Amino acid sequence: KMLNVKVITLLADITLLAVITLSVATDLFIIFIVVMLKSKTFVKKTRSGGIMKIVREHYLRDDIWCGSEVCTECKQEESVLQKDACIESNLCSFPHYLLPDTNVVLSQIDILEDPLIKNVIILQTVLQEVRHRSAPIYKRLKDILHDKEKHVYTFTNEHHRETYIEREQGESANDRNDRAIRISTKWYSDHLNNKGLKVVLLTNDRGNKEKAEEAGLLTYRSDVNNEITSSKVLFSEHLPLSRIQSGIKSGTFQQGTFRASRDNYLEATVFVHGEGDDSTEVLIQGLQNLNRAVHQDLVAVEILPLNQWVAPSSVVLQDEGPKEDDVTEEEEAELKSGPSGVASRKPTGRVVGIIKRNWRPFCGMLFLSQIKEATRHLFTPADRRIPRIRIETRQAATLAGQRIMVAIDGWPKHSRYPNGHFVRSLGSAGDKETETEVLLLEHDVPHQDFSQAVLSFLPKMPWNITEEDMAVREDLRNLTVCSVDPPGCTDIDDALHCRDLPNGNQEVGVHIADVSHFIRPGNAMDLEAANRGTTVYLTGRRIDMVPELLSSNLCSLRSSVERLAFSCIWEINDKAEIVQTRFTKSVINSKASLTYAEAQMRIDDANMNDDTTKSLRGLNRLAKILKKRRIEKGALTLSSPEVRFHIDSETHDPIDLQTKELKETNSMVEEFMLLANISVAQKIYDEFSECALLRKHPAPPPSNYDILNKAAKSKDLVIHTDSAKALADSLDAAQVDGFPYFNTLLRILATRCMMQAVYFCSGMDSDFHHYGLASPIYTHFTSPIRRYSDIIVHRLLAVAIGADSTYPDLMDKHKQSALCNNLNYRHKMAQYAQRASVAFHTQLFFKSRGILNEEGFILFVRKNAIIVLIPKFGLEGTVFFENKDKPSPKLIFNEEVPSLTVEGHSFNMFDKVKVTISLDASNVQHQKIRMSLVEPVISGVSVAPSEPEAKRAKLDR
């Protein structure tokens, strides 16, 4: 075998002899290889004004292997391409190798990654182009090349004497590379001509395909049938990046994130980010102005003249079915429904270019073409913000009723929909496992099993606290510590204790699982936890941030077992004022693991006077004082319609649905968690002013409160929003006689006005204030089992008290800031995934219930619908007043109130209504809860109550 090939000298004229030293085992010998030398000479002017002669040499060889197992001409030690190269295909039933061009690799890398695709030739030309054009795809391509099961061979065509070509005069670099690919395909075809194998050139370029066929090559254009042949241009050409960059620099264009509307497919908003928290929202309306942007793309927008600014549309408009490649006047007219007042108008613009696509594989279902034996179909994404996608497939019949994944390849300017390709099937629509997989994929939740590399860093079992641990920790096992959590909780992060001190004060401790003891910086488990960011709680399933051995066992502060903890301990007087605070690594032994209900019963039962109950009563008394003081400072008490499912233990179907009931003990635990987080935030900021990981809640812009002010005004009330304190006081005072639920509705609405709370690095921001808590500083310390932010805070606190050593990334504010960005993204996606899981299980609950009648309240009023909240189920639904199957009633919409008059009856926010609730399963892709109006009774609009209630009403009469 040849090892350590080194060029000793080069003797060049027209033919070059390379003397190469080769070591074979222990013997050295010299051989001669004949290669060809291509050289180019040109002159270049130097800075000093002189002339420099430059010679570039390109060495060509004739001994480069073809890589095929069937070849006997090439001298090769190990073949890559198989002799039996039959890929199951309707187009190529014969043995063949695939040779993709650059564009196919860039746009359809998912296909090449499929295990079924084997025996592929990747040319050096293609590899180099991909490397320069897309680093992520280049990495994926390299992974494919390293996978021996794939049998993918890299052919160095740029150094082969028969496949290297010079760039011709006037020929673009792209055209030269396309020609090089065709030349290499021709060489392979001739080289393997008598071996019973063919080489198929894959291209999605019409010109390249035609030239290849002229040369007698076997080709397949991967998206030939996807291309829309209509010559009508629907969209403006996207501007080149150079024009966009200069336009942004001059202020002609703005760049921002494109966010499509969930309620109106003809509308979107571009968030233009300014300095700090400043951002501008640019409204985009109409397909032409949306200009082929897809949700989350980074786009360039042009602001329209002031006289073309419009108000957001008040209509709920969904793209109900496939349309021709045209935009009708009726369709665009639907948008002209917003208020006409100048005050309601917003900066309005149009998309002029795409700076960065944020495309990913999308989950959804195939909408089969009505044309018999058609191969082109429309894919409908699960996310309504994503447009339908045209794909080419011969598997349509098999994929009908399946949840599938599709990737976008491109969006021509003469096509209403983008083009894409099928990636993989996920399973049958409606199946619980499939739907859960879909919502996890759609919300980018990492949910794969933990790798062996991650699991290798788990402690060996059986695990015990060692003498070394005890030597550096405070022994708090004698304290009456207990945990209070929701039913069924196994990942217990926090526990509490309260005891009287000799001086009359009380000692209160918050003890948090010491996860950072088990997860050390930089190892595989730490990197995986940092990527996941948070534990995701779905209905009936939990996606852990850390392996279960830690989350539900070694880190969980279960009762009657010794556990490592990080403790925050205060001395507090009778007025709940903090006398002193200390932090310590500790060892605890929880005396009880209680649910909120169990803890509440202990507090309320006068006959119970054990140490645990006394501790709970002390905690509860202090918590009430703390909460009262927080609210006096302006902390907000908001509301949201949260629900809890009761799941059948065998079928795992929801058998009951009810709103969550909060008890005093919920508030008790919350108060001490907030106090611990605030105490720790101040400590780590005092020690590390530049790199503390903190959490803030920005104050909402005044415009966010518009809907809240209108709702209050409808009941002759005024809400002051100058500060959190003013808002809190207004909400407390907002009462309507005979309408006790009004205040809850108002707080639910106020919650919708809030900004998102975010993590940030103290050295990268100056505004630390938490608006909702009315606290000048805040962080997350109390849930390290389920939040990675808390692990970082633990590490900072440990360094601050001398309990652990630091490391470079912990003190790097730029890396901390990048970490915060990922944590904010993961937390937001986790929230959306949890809501989607609740929505799906709500559908399952109503699927077997038939039609129910329930009372609800109007939460929002739209131009053609009302959004109704059902308090009993914490459920929101839309009652539409337009039906394609029957004449629409007379509708009058008043944006200023807002109110909707239907056939003379006026609907306002917070009005009480009765509706029927049922599951509309007519669209398998988007099954939804359907609501229809029962009361008030409006002729031609309202429906009769469901049969059971109708029978009861008859009996009552």
Essential attributes:
disordered N terminus; OB fold (Dihydrolipoamide Acetyltransferase, E2P); RRP44_S1; Rossmann fold; acetylation; alpha+beta; manganese; five-stranded mixed barrel; 6 domains
Q: In angstroms, what separates the terminal alpha carbons?
A: 100 Å
Number of helices: 24
Main sheet, how many strands, which sense, barrel?
5 strands, mixed, barrel
Radius of gyration: 34 Å
- Mean of residue pLDDT values: 85
Weakly predicted, low-confidence segments? 1-34, 224-231, 949-957
What percentage of the residues does DSSP assign to strands (E)?
Answer: 25-35%
- Which oligomeric state applies? single chain
Helix share, percent:
25-40%
- Which strand order does the major sheet show? 10-11-12-14-13
Overall strand count: 40
Class from secondary-structure proportions: alpha+beta
User: Number of domains in the coordinates?
Assistant: 6
- Note the overall shape: globular
GO molecular function: 3'-5'-RNA exonuclease activity; endonuclease activity; RNA binding
Pfam families: OB_Dis3, PIN_4, RNB, Rrp44_CSD1, Rrp44_S1
Transmembrane segments: 7-37
Family: Belongs to the RNR ribonuclease family.
Report on this model:
There is one protein chain. This protein has a 5-stranded mixed β-barrel with strand order 10-11-12-14-13. It is built from 24 helices and 40 strands. The chain folds into 6 domains: 1-61, no CATH class; 80-221, 3-Layer(aba) Sandwich (Rossmann fold), CATH 3.40.50.1010; 241-356, OB fold (Dihydrolipoamide Acetyltransferase, E2P) (Beta Barrel); 362-437, OB fold (Dihydrolipoamide Acetyltransferase, E2P), CATH 2.40.50.700; 452-688 and 780-830, no CATH class; 849-956, OB fold (Dihydrolipoamide Acetyltransferase, E2P) (Beta Barrel), CATH 2.40.50. It is globular and about 95 Å long. The protein starts with a strand and ends with a helix. It is of the alpha+beta class. Its cofactor is Mg(2+); Mn(2+). It comes from Salmo trutta. GO terms for molecular function: 3'-5'-RNA exonuclease activity; endonuclease activity; RNA binding. Keywords: Acetylation, Cytoplasm, Endonuclease, Exonuclease, Exosome, Hydrolase, Magnesium, Manganese, Membrane, Nuclease, Nucleus, Phosphoprotein, RNA-binding, rRNA processing, Transmembrane, Transmembrane helix. Residues 473-803 form the RNB domain.
